[in-house]
């Protein structure tokens, strides 16, 4: 079957790895921002679905992928409002509220899809390609990497910007302080609630973007429960990445690789069972957890509400 | 020492009590199971003999947007109702968790015959049919029970064989892809039959087989990924089987110029921006089966035998499209005649390994 391993096949394989990695990367960056501020968002799966559906419906209606991505981000922010109000402002249990948000997101998007879109054409087609001169002409890698939608590059810029702002700016320092030792931030004159609010809203935008990327670019359509557990994998990746966006990016690409390798091996003629194919990403996640469990570090104030003066 | 031995004795007594309780539970459970299993369904009288059916119902786990299994059942029920001039209650999106309740509710609402349109509804259907003394048609597996239960089975390999001929006569790259979204016996049958149909035209054609996962019926993203890789490997005709995953297959096919798609069970035309990419679909026509089942209910013979969807009884047909040329249609008709007269017997594969063996045999 080596004759099947053509340049075109490798190109599609690389493009598939990226297409699978990007939604996870965006969602994990969003989760990272929230967790660095001390807010554990277990509702990420539901928020991703809300972002995916809003992005899908706006793109389907307008035909504009940029508007769809923007709508996905807005949808993510709206989805995270429950986390903002109930967790940050009212100090309710983050785990309970997060799980509720996941269930709400799954339910609302499924009902809306079945009511509005289930019996009609839901194909979004492909977004316009953005070909980078010269680089796009590199064999194999060029078409896979440098002939992507411009949305891909914008997403990459967002991820880099998030990493920069989190690690190199006073704003990022405030975010991390809100998760590391909120009382110190408070004593220094910062508002923990305000900083956490910013973080939760920005987190929602990234998670929503991840959902929209999944629907608009990776799948080109929306189906109920399209995230298929991706949000929970984003939580694992966030905890393993110790707040470093570069590690989020690397582990997301590794995930994309594990998703893409299954069908590729089958097409190339290797006798791999469907069960093994589906297990590969999760086996890798579990192995990573086992190997790096000792090095995973979460902010000390993660999951706890902050009340000024409370001991 | 006294304290220790008392504690040890107490622990032993506790363990004995637990073992005794567990044993009693196991015995009572076995007794219950034996009681159910010991029933003699055939001895129960048919509760419906001589009944005139004026209303029936179909309960399906999802809706027609899957372009497949659920769509075929719902369309078939509507067709049967129209043909017989009776009422039908369609219950799509019934899910999997509460089948027994839903089946009971449609009977309570007046349905004199029910189609439990999912292989996963078999146990619930049998239970409800017995409790409500109402005939229920179940799918794929189970025992026929006179007056109560009949099973529908599909010779999917026959439809796959015909589609394989159409694919082989359409491909220009000499590479054809099969993608399934789950380990489903009907899809194994159809895949094996499809590969044999391809090889019957030209054994040199390369058939590639890939699965999205063991039960990824609705994984559109995974479906798109798998299909893109088949196309990248050179396949210019894709035979896709997969409920909601079909959305992903269609995205990949529509994005690849020159690639044709073969659907299964239902009509995917409404899900395509460009319907010309559709080569054909292996349609499962449940209408005649439902009509026959209702007539059997009225005659009091329901459950004395099961029902089959075959090429011979028009339960399996290929969807007509402009891409099926006269030459292709002639070859399909010839193969259809061979299947009906028994000179062509496609392999009813029941596992992925059997499908892969058929693919590897290249028609030998």
UniProtKB/TrEMBL annotation, chain A:
Cellular localisation: Cell membrane
Membrane topology designation: Multi-pass membrane protein
Record's keyword annotation contains Ribonucleoprotein: no
Pfam families: BPD_transp_2
Entry keyword annotation includes tRNA processing: no
Transmembrane segments: 6-27, 39-59, 65-88, 95-114, 150-167, 199-216, 222-240, 247-268, 280-302
Keyword annotations of the record: Cell membrane, Membrane, Transmembrane, Transmembrane helix
Protein name: ABC transporter permease
Organism: Microterricola pindariensis
